[in-house]
């Protein structure tokens, strides 16, 4: 049902972001978004490692 974002959708999102934040704030917003995504991925990886360790210890 939900797939990847296509080129048209990406251009539309970037145009809206440019209008909302303006050209001077856009790099700052992108940097913050990148940090947030990276932090989310790190926490998700830690949680999946903890779950894997718990499952492995339960199976022994």
From TrEMBL:
It comes from Clostridium malenominatum. It is a single-pass membrane protein. The keyword Protein transport applies. Its main location: membrane. Keywords: Cell membrane, Membrane, Protein transport, Translocation, Transmembrane, Transmembrane helix, Transport. The gene is tatA. Belongs to the TatA/E family. PANTHER family: SEC-INDEPENDENT PROTEIN TRANSLOCASE PROTEIN TATA. This is Sec-independent protein translocase protein TatA.
């Amino acid at each position: 049902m939900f797939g990847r974002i296509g080129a048209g959708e990406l251009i539309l999102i970037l145009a809206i972001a440019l209008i909302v934040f303006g050209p001077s704030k856009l790099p700052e917003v992108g940097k913050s978004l990148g940090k947030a995504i990276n932090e989310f991925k790190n926490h998700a990886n830690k949680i999946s490692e903890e779950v894997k360790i718990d499952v492995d210890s339960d199976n022994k």
